[in-house]
Backbone:
């Protein structure tokens, strides 16, 4: 368990799961935000970020750290809405007569 000292020099870092740079993290507050790059639910429904918190240890030259995973639920957006170039389309569908063939009973 990581003991956090209030007002200590704590930093937050995304250490894995952000290869496309879709997220940023505020190093001081730990707030995770999206970047201007677009998230797409069709490509990744629930990205999982590995976040590491570090606190320098005042008695030694090492840092205390802990890692957790943050699952981001991406909501879908209609990003493939239909687009019509014309306001009106006229279509002609030919009528094809359908003939029924009845078989005579053999006897």
Residues:
């Amino acid at each position: 368990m990581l003991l956090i000292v209030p007002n200590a020099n704590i930093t937050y870092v995304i250490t894995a799961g952000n290869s496309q740079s879709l997220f940023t993290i505020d190093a001081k507050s730990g707030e995770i935000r999206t970047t201007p790059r677009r998230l797409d639910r069709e490509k990744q429904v629930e990205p999982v970020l590995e976040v590491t918190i570090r606190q320098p240890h005042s008695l030694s030259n090492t840092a205390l750290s802990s890692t957790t995973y943050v699952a981001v639920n991406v909501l879908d957006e209609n990003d493939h809405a239909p687009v019509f170039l014309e306001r009106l389309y006229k279509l002609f569908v030919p009528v094809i007569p359908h003939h029924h063939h009845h078989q005579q009973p053999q006897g």
